Amino acid sequence: MIYVTKNRTRRDGGAAMFQFYMPTQIQFGAGKAQQLPSLLKDLSLGSTLLVVSDKGVVAAGLVTPILDLLANNGFQVHLFTQVAQNPRDADCLVGVDAFHAVGAQAVIAIGGGSAMDTAKAIALLAKTGGTPQEYVDGLRSYESTYPVVCLPTTAGTGSEVTRSSVITEATTHRKMTLKHNLMRPVLAVLDPLLTLSVPPAVTAATGVDALVHAIEGATCTLSTPITQAFGARAMREIIPALPRAVANGQDVEARTLMLQGSLLAGLCFGNADVAAVHCLAEALGGLYDTPHGVANAIFLPHVLRFNAQAHQSLHADLGRTMGFAQEADADELAVTKLVDGIAEYTALLNIPTLRQLGYVQPSDFPRLVELAFQNGSTPSNVRPISKDDYAAILEATYLAE
Length: 401
Hints:
Elements: E1 3-5, E2 8-10, E3 25-28, H1 36-43, E4 48-52, H2 55-59, H3 64-71, E5 76-80, H4 89-102, E6 106-111, H5 113-128, H6 132-136, E7 148-152, E8 164-169, E9 174-179, E10 187-190, H7 200-219, H8 225-247, H9 252-269, H10 276-288, H11 292-308, H12 312-321, H13 331-348, H14 365-374, H15 387-399
Parallel strand pairs: 3-10, 4-5, 4-6, 6-7, 7-10
Antiparallel strand pairs: 1-2, 8-9
C-alpha cells in the first residue's frame, strides 16, 4: 500500500492524521431518477426549484421528463440553461438573478460537470452574495448555501459528491475553484440510464477526466488511505469499462461501471485534491475553452512521466493497479508500461494530441504556464513543480506525436 502525506510519499505501512467528510446522500442505480420527487420530499427542501442544465442535455431529451415528473408531484420547477462548457462567472450571476426571481428554495443540477458546477456556484452566491472572485481571493467567507441536488448525465466529473465548483473568470481566463464543505450537494442521484445517450467523444473525454481524478486524488500530497482506496477501485473499474462505453453507448453494464467509477473518483479527489494534470488542463480550458476531459487526457502521460522521475515505485504501483504492468515487473519497467499504456489508451479513445486540436499556439505557452502555476492545486502535485517544469511539460506535450 502507498501512503501519501504532505510533501512526501511513504511505504512503511503507517498513515498520517487525516479526516474524511461526506455529507451527501448517494442514491445509485438504474431508474433511480424516477424516485427524485420522493427523495426531495424526504429532505424537505421546499417546493420551488431552480433546475440548472445545459442546452445540449435538454436537446437530448433528458431534462423534460424529469421536469414533468417533478411538476406532477407538486413541485414548481424553473429551468435555467445559461451554462457554458467551461462555466463562466457572468452566467453564474445571471443564474443567481433567476433563482431570486422565481423564489427558489433549492437548486437541482441535471447534466455534466458544467451544469453541476454552475448550480453549486448559484446556490452559494444566491445565499451569501458576492462574486466567485471574492470567495477565491479570500475577500468573502463561505457562510451558507442553498441546498443542491445533482443528477449527473455523464460519467466524469464526480462533482455530485465534491466540495468544489470550477468557474472561469471570463475577463482573464483564470479558472477559479470555489471550495468548501458547505458546497457539497445534499443529494446525488446517479442513474446510469441518464448516460446512455452521451456521444462517444464526450464519453471518452469525461471518462478520462474521471480516471485522472482517481490518479491524482490517490497520489497527491493530500491523499489519505481512504482516498487511495477509492482511487484504486475507480481505476480498476474505469480502465476496462470506458472503451466498452465508447464503442457501445447502450451497454448498460459498461455505463453503470463508468458512473460508479466516476463516483468513486469523485469521493477520492473530493477529499484530497487534484494536481499538475488538472492545473495544465484548466489553463488550456480557460484560454481556449478546450473540453476539460480532452485537456486532461492530453497532459496525463507527460505529467506521469515527470512525477515518476521522483516517485518511481508509486507510479509503478499505478501501472500495476490499472493493468498496464504486471505484478512481477520491475518498477522501472512498470513505469514505462504505465506512461506508454496511458498514451496508447487515450489514442485508442480517439482523443486528439495538443497539436491536433489545431488552435494551440506556442506563443501562448508563457500564459498557459502562468495560469497552471497559479492554480491552487499546484502545491498538491506529488513532485514539486515549477514554472520551468510546466514549460518543459508543455513543450514535450506539443512535440509528441
